[in-house]
Amino acid sequence: MFLDLKSMKTCTRSLGFSFSGSKSAFSLATLALGLELFLSVSASATSLVQLSLQQLTQAASNVLQGHVVSQVSEWNASHTEIVTLTTIAVDSDTKGNTPSTVVVEQPGGTLGHFRVYVPGTVHFFPQSRYVLFLERAPATPAHYHVVGMMQGAYRIYRDQRTGQERVITPMGRFFYGQPAAGGHVTTQPETMPLQEFHQKVSSAIAKPIVIPSGTALPLVIRSVSFDGVGRIEVEAETTQDVYPNTQTVIPAGSLVDGWGSKTAGHWTLHWTAVSIRGREASIKATHQVSGGEAPFQGERMTVMTR
Questions:
Q1: Which backbone phi and psi does 16 adopt, to 5 degrees?
Q2: Are both 156 and 108 inside the same structural domain?
């Protein structure tokens, strides 16, 4: 399911979020000081893929519970984008070897007289607690991105009536109002007990990853090494996010292992496993290499699992 959202031009990549669009017609250099700036492109330029809890846990390198310590907006390293950095103190982690504090990077923010807003980003409340699904930021490995943007941030609160700790489901009615009786839209958030949510996350993490047959994997070869006469070992990586079904996701950059054999002057590649955030899933796929030459580093192909 794709949800089209208005957004600005941004170089940030997060799983579950894709962008393509032309540059804004505005130039920061020509704006008068004191102007509050909003940059946007057409609504069709951005797609937010709705992720299930199973997909969130698969795509996340780290799943943790923590609280907000501080937040600051600044220019990125190339001084082309405003980003917001939120420091989270980690109270506990469920997946990944998470450090005691993490810095979550998101596009947009307020810097001086400029404000850049990107729909779909998480609005972190000061001192609030969250369960977060994070992945390493490719351009800045010391930082993290929220998987699926706001989908990967579950805010924790204490019910004033019962005293029970609960989490707010970020993709529930609180964010996408659904018509109730009489046609009006309710903003009542969907919630669940924190303990129950942790149990669901742990179950999702423990569940084996199954890649169904008929899944198309766009690959680029990373390395090729000869293993005797007429045999090679091959490693590739996926070039884009793949969503085979609502329970599985294969993030871009996932490693794919295989081997190749040469028969009658032609190479056949046999792909056997995909590594998703450190967890391995078995696959069966073959690819016939055109011509008599062995595959080479940087060669691109699409393989179909069977």
A1: 90, 0
A2: yes
234 and 272 housed in the same domain: yes
Q: Are residues 158 and 195 part of one domain? A: yes
Residues ≥6 apart with Cβ < 8 Å to 272: 257, 258, 259, 282, 283, 284
Q: Quick check: 105 and 75 in contact, CB under 8 A?
A: no
State which of 206, 238, 268 marks the end of a domain.
206
Residue 231 CA to its chain's centroid (Å): 36
Could you report the per-residue pLDDT of 54-102, keeping only the tens digit for each? 999 999 999 999 999 999 999 998 889 999 999 999 999 999 999 999 9
Give the Cα-Cα-Cα angle 107, 102, 90 (nearest 5 degrees): 130
Contacts of 130 by beta carbon, 8 Å cutoff, 6+ apart = 65, 66, 67, 68, 88, 124, 153, 154, 155, 156
Cα distances from 26 to residues 111, 119, 212, in angstroms, run 17, 19, 46
What range defines the domain where residue 98 resides?
49-206
Q: Please report, rounded to a whole number, the percentage of residues in the chain having pLDDT higher than 70.
A: 79
Ordered DSSP codes for 214-275:
T-EEEEEEEEEEE-STTEEEEEEEESS-EEEETTEEE-TT-EEEEEEEEETTEEEEEEEEEE
Q: 200 and 80, same structural domain?
A: yes
Domain count, the chain: 2
104 DSSP β-pair partners: 86, 144
Provide the whole-model pTM. 0.81
One-letter amino acid at 21 equals G
DSSP label at residue 186: P
Q: Is 91 part of any domain?
A: yes
Q: Closest Cα to residue 91, out of 104, 81, 101, 83?
A: 101
Q: Which two tokens stand for residue 1?
A: 């399911």
Nearest Cα residue to 58 out of 187, 186, 250:
250
Instruction: Let me know if residue 29 belongs to a domain.
Output: no
Q: What element of type H or E holds 203?
A: helix 194-206
